[in-house]
């Protein structure tokens, strides 16, 4: 798993500039989901929803800084109940008192208890979220350099490789436990900003090649506010935007190479990758200047659509492309079915196994994303409906006709029936009147 990876910045998705050979090889004989969506276009709710197999409203984690209740059922906890070693390497982004949430071992990564979860008798530190500088500064300072994401990710990969060595061979003490099934999560920070490319040669390669959205006319809507706008020529120069984009591409390539090292380690300890279920995804995307916006928190494709591929040649075959709408929430039920573990009740998760086997019959072609307790996206087919609360206009994009998301067709007569169905579904999800 990575953080903030746009679905269209991968070689296998047709991007001719970025170099992602590891992901491309996995995709070649795996199944690629071209319409996979995050349940929330921001880190913490997205990750908790994926782990819980539930929408943010179901989990009670709808905003940045909120966390699952201690002991909440996650797919890591469920597989651990059925004998798996569940090992998380790297970023989890829990902020509450339960820092494991079902993982039986944890290597590296962030371990942070939010001040709101501390007992009253403890002196509470200042909330660091309030000290975050604006995204304009991130764009202006982009370039070559070893940022905190690269430092953390190197620690994650070294820890993952060390764990694999101990689990499968343990050459020092002969205490290997290869007979115990393993769920291994390798969770990297890149390509999350700051936009700093660890390898200056990669940065130099991408600088003259990357596309930018500097000349695009953005879609105008009140939800485009929130301090994430970067106006080309006013907030940042075209060159600064290009540098941020080049650094982002270089970080994607760096992330791809680190995942390759983990796969090489599996071979090194005697594992046949074809017998592994390998899943790659990200928690959300990155606007990267599209519509004049950086970061995420939006229901545009660049922010809300995520890369998702599943590879298991020995059990599923491969070489498929799935175009139905799916959600990261669906990974819980999918993992349960693939491993033969009974899925618990109360999930919003649907098993992707029929789609992985090439059977789309009866699939409910819907993806739901929520943010900040009041913002809702529902996608069915190529239609993407968005609701932002009382007083703000609804939005409907037809991605078949308008892939750049520039025209609101909410009042188009040909979509009248679809809009009524979206509104009915919105009320079922308890959003607005």
From TrEMBL:
<dbReference type="InterPro" id="IPR051849">
    <property type="entry name" value="GAG-degrading_sulfatase"/>
</dbReference>
<dbReference type="InterPro" id="IPR017850">
    <property type="entry name" value="Alkaline_phosphatase_core_sf"/>
</dbReference>
<dbReference type="GO" id="GO:0015024">
    <property type="term" value="F:glucuronate-2-sulfatase activity"/>
</dbReference>
<protein>
    <submittedName>
        <fullName>Sulfatase-like hydrolase/transferase</fullName>
    </submittedName>
</protein>
<dbReference type="GO" id="GO:0004065">
    <property type="term" value="F:arylsulfatase activity"/>
</dbReference>
<keyword id="KW-0378">Hydrolase</keyword>
<dbReference type="InterPro" id="IPR000917">
    <property type="entry name" value="Sulfatase_N"/>
</dbReference>
<dbReference type="Pfam" id="PF00884">
    <property type="entry name" value="Sulfatase"/>
</dbReference>
<feature type="domain" description="Sulfatase N-terminal">
    <location>
        <begin position="1"/>
        <end position="341"/>
    </location>
</feature>
